[in-house]
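Dear support,

Our group has been running a series of protein-ligand predictions, and this particular one with phosphoenolpyruvate is the one our PI (initials K.S.) wants archived with full inputs and outputs. We had some confusion internally about which version of the output was final, so please treat the block below as the authoritative record. The input we submitted was:
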Amino acid sequence: TQYVYRFGGGVSDGGRGDRNLLGGKGANLAEMASIGLPVPPGFTISTEFCAVYYDEGRAFPKGLRDEVATGIAHIEGVTGKTFGDPADPLLVSVRSGARASMPGMMDTVLNLGLNDETVQGLAATSGDARFAWDSYRRFIQMYSDVVLELDHRGFEDALDIAKEDRGYFLDTDLTAEDLQALVAEYKGLVEAQWGKPFPQDVHDQLWGAVGAVFGSWQSERAKVYRRLNDIPASWGTAVNVQAMVFGNMGDTSATGVAFTRDPAKGDRAYYGEFLINAQGEDVVAGIRTPQYLTKASREAAGAKPASMEEAMPVVFTELAKVFDLLENHYRDMQDIEFTVQQGKLWMLQTRSGKRTAKAALKIAVDMAEEGLITREEAVARVDPAALDQLLHPTLDPAARRDVLTKGLPASPGAASGAAVFDSDTAEKRAAAGESVILIRVETSPEDIHGMHAARGILTARGGMTSHAAVVARGMGRPCVSGAGTISIDAKAGIMRVAGREVREGDIVTIDGSTGEVMMGAVPTVQPELAGDFGTLMVWADGVRRLKVRANAETPLDAKVAREFGAEGIGLCRTEHMFFDAARITAVRQMILAEDEAGRRVALEKLLPEQRADFIQLFEVMAGLPVTIRLLDPPLHEFLPHEEAEFAEVASAAGVDIDVLKRRAAELHEFNPMLGHRGCRLGVTYPEIYEMQARAIFEAAIAVAEKSGSAPIPEVMIPLVATRRELELMKAVVDKAAQAVFADKGATIEYLVGTMIELPRAALMAGEIAEVGAFFSFGTNDLTQTTLGVSRDDAARFLTTYVERGIYARDPFVSLDIEGVGQLIEMAAERGRATRPDIKLGICGEHGGDPASIAFCEKIGLDYVSASPYRVPIARLAAAQAAL
Ligand code: PEP
Ligand code: MG
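Confirmed final output from the archive:
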């Protein structure tokens, strides 16, 4: 096996396609060299050797030593200098370079090859003794830190003392003699700490540095970074050994970093900073304030020190040409490192630059319009998940934050407002024009009005699919859930966190994109949906096959969904209409009724309300499909839970308080999610579904008559496990339809279908499709029931599960494709075998998750349905899945 690949001086053993073998840095250095850019000569020891290094017990076999000797000879040949030559020494840098960039995680050693003899040669050939001694002291300091792993503070203190003693402010004030004295002091520090003198043999230095770079792959911080960024340990890092070039050889030398476009806003302008007479680490270290690259950016910032464009106009022009060339060559915005040595430009690195969501959009659209990339490539370039940043107000990044705690980022966006601890107060204060943040231990369906009234929601308990999270996402309200370190005393109106108190009315800010909870108001910035965003969405719609619908029940949410491009409603959860403050009393009467007759009296009161809801929804959706799910949650959710509420509810509902309590106790369940809910309600109380079906058909006919175009309602039965359940419920719906049609003397088209959200339903999908005209995969419940993990309680241990690699991601956020995915795929196949034109969609939270959407495309579902604010994300993800 070959482990060493050369570049520079007209040779390139590799290129941009060899990223896996040479790492990002090595592949791009070889590529830049091959297109004739000025790259200091060097070689890359491949990532493949990283595994060998660990297998060999961190040793270097003879074969590698021979290859490295050839690599060094290559550098010597190109530079005309010899490694270790006291008269004219070659110096090299040794840097890591993994496949995926791991900024700041891995090690680098510069100026390697200096010792007590070669420093004299460097002083003589450069004619600059100060530079030579400065390079040597930098080398000792870096080598001691990275390779010998000595405590770096001693070196920093010695440097500070040297400056103080002489009354200097800048490192550059130190003279050659000062630096020579500092080198002696550094060598003393090494010997004292390490027990041996600083290595003088340049080959020992080299192998020490190569070993340290390979060793840094298994450092703690690298391991943590890999875990957070899903980078496999097996990839390994490469090591790049390259001839040094010097940005610290006086005022015609400099070093800098640049982006070919603005990484924050995406504007087409060079962007970056540089330092005259400095080495790379000085720019990063922040000891001296770097200067702007261009005159325009210096002026825009109102800064004084000359920009590179002004201070070094000739090299700057050359550099600008390289920027354009690299951008054209890689067809993407580049992040570049360069050095100028005595007026000569050298390129040290190029890679695709990291950017904000806003910049990603602008750069993709601009590049397509410039003809640099195709529209499909532009669509493929933008990370759908990053759009989240753009669809909600976000915290002003420049603003100060007083962070109290962190919970789960349950629904994106940021909001500030007065802390309130119950939903009625939230509604009252909001009605009076105040911004409020609703803070609850956890929310229940009774909090819907408070959540609607609030700008944001914070809960102490609950995961990513808890009630608060799902409802908040649906409403587009920012939400932080499961902030376990807060304790809430709702009665007293106090939240305690981190030894501090927040009282009702105190202003707090939540960031649902990061999970942060802050004291006080933090200013926000508003999203922009037109412009580049709109353009990219149109391009995305041109390539996607999957339709995108929204989960919405209020006319307002439906309007938002349409503005974001929803092509129908995939899930209208009717229970959300039951919780409306105006009708909760009738709902409770229905639940408290002794018999069917009593229930029907209450349902008669609800009928006109439901009908009015559906009329509004059908009007907003104007002829688009609307899937309406009949009542799903266990009935006890509609009854009060707290002692104080019982009396109030009893008198409102006109029943005795003891009757109410008895009924609540009867309805109590140990496992309500597996209890009397879904179609089980319809089976036991068919009159509820009958009323809902009537309301749907009467509304559809009313809208058809008024607007001339009939909506096509898709009536959906929840939590079906068997064909017989669906049959019975379909009969109820069909009978209601016939009754309404007879009554109104008009008919409309409709479909009856089911959710597939239980494993048994997926298994029996072939049979169930004989009855149902469509399936909508309810992946929230399907995940809960397949994994046997409660969606409301999982947050407590799922984080650990993800950390331990048991699930790659939270399965309530990103579909467990391996497991739950099999059930979906199988149900889709079996359903189609029975009914080839069966409509298939997904309406669980996964309908807005890009990885899950890619799976839906792969198995050929017809649509995905996501909460309104995730509709654009779903449109883009669906387009990428189709590419
Ligand atoms: C589901 O279970 O995936 C679903 C969409 O229904 P809900 O979240 O209302 O239970
Ligand atoms: Mg469900």
